[in-house]
Specification:
The protein has 378 residues and is mostly beta strands. It is built from 3 helices and 16 strands. Strand 8 and strand 9 form a beta hairpin.
Length: 378
């Protein structure tokens, strides 16, 4: 067994959870003028999160355990990559959820989300916050299937010593590790009908100003799904157990570590299904480790099986801004439930969950899973 590959990868925007990240479709080689890669990956993931909620006390604001959230995902990711030039590819990802099941239960006792008396519009109107108004069904469960957001992007390998090894083997003494550095840039597009990613399409779930403000041109485009900007750094190593260079066959073991930053986003958070709407989440970081087995049966057929374990840092998942000075009078006018026009108020702002002292926070999320990839290379 000898070390073969040490990889360092920087990725901006969504990247494939499944892809063998240093494999870049090629083009322009004498023996391989154009490469087309087709991949299908089955993935099983399970995530566990404790959701806490702010509570204002005489000593200040504290966080109390509110919900236990579990998500189980079984999905197939389809990937197409086409070589453009040496170590430069154009790729497309299309995730298909076979089962995306979520459940939420009280962390202990009765949840304050069940005994809530605050109106989504605020308490300015007399009698609006005197009766119990549950925020979500607890316990609860949801399940969905179908395609997720497709991703299109490019990947470039500016350093590929494995290629150099094939072309000029005299430069690499036996047993010397070789490295590959890869940079990828990708972007996702919502896979939904018009309005399907806009909370304003369901004003009955929003505050009293939503009916007017969602139609206000000054709020146009600001209430839709807002995916996060993301950046990722990956370091990994491949240990080759057996290889036949002439037959283009290899059996190896892989270990990989990822650190991924997720920017603020209006997205499908742990409480989106329970509330029936997207919520605005703060930035957070995911760290993940992966251990796998890679087999190349022939130049055109690759197999990979691996397991992963990761942790997300804690972050708030209900954090809409209350509004903006749209009429430019120097103040932000909000309704608070008084029924008066308030063009400055964010139509998505929820007094029950977005106000400081009532927000929901996802504590560190633990995720584990396994996956298998079949890749055909032409």
């Amino acid at each position: 067994m000898r070390a073969w590959l040490l990889a360092a990868v920087a990725v901006v925007a969504p990247a494939s959870f499944a892809a063998r990240i240093t494999d870049v479709a090629d083009a322009g080689d004498e023996k391989h003028p154009l490469e087309v890669d087709l991949e299908a990956t089955y993935t099983h993931l399970r995530s566990l999160t404790t959701l806490t909620r702010e509570q204002t006390t005489a000593a200040g604001t504290q966080l109390n355990d509110e919900l236990k959230h579990v998500r189980t995902l079984d999905a197939i990711e389809l990937r197409l990559a086409v070589g453009i030039w040496h170590d430069l590819e154009l790729h497309v990802f299309a995730p298909l959820a076979l089962r995306d099941q979520q459940s939420w239960n009280p962390a202990s006792g009765t949840s304050t989300l069940s005994t809530n008396t605050i109106s989504v519009s605020g308490c300015a109107a007399a009698g609006s916050c005197t009766t119990v108004q549950p925020i979500m069904p607890i316990p609860g469960q949801s399940q969905r299937t179908g395609f997720g957001d497709p991703t299109v992007g490019i990947t470039w390998g500016p350093i590929n010593e494995e290629r150099e090894l094939r072309l000029r083997p005299e430069l690499f003494p036996p047993g010397k590790p070789v490295s590959t550095w890869v940079i990828a840039l990708s972007a996702s597009a919502p896979f939904a009908a018009p309005g399907g990613y806009d909370d304003c399409s369901h004003p009955e779930l929003l505050s009293d100003v939503a009916t007017a403000n969602c139609k206000d041109a000054r709020w146009a485009g600001q209430t839709r799904y807002k995916p996060p900007y993301e950046a990722q750094l990956t370091l990994g190593a491949e240990l080759v157990a057996a290889e036949d260079v002439k037959a283009d066959e290899r059996l190896s073991f892989e270990v990989r570590g990822d650190v991924r930053w997720h920017g603020p986003a209006r997205d499908y958070t742990q409480v989106a299904d329970a509330l029936g709407k997207l919520t605005y989440a703060d930035e957070y970081v995911t760290t993940m480790g992966t251990l796998g087995i890679y087999g190349r049966v022939a130049r055109w057929l690759h197999l990979r099986v691996y397991g992963s374990f990761g942790v997300d840092t804690a972050h708030f998942v209900t954090h809409e801004d209350i509004g903006e000075d749209k009429d430019r009078d120097g103040i932000v006018t909000v309704s608070g439930g008084n029924g008066l026009p308030a063009p400055d108020q964010n139509p998505l702002y929820d007094y029950r969950l977005d106000q400081v002292g009532r927000r929901l926070r996802a504590e560190p999320t633990v995720t584990w899973g396994f996956a298998g990839t079949l890749s055909l290379n032409f």
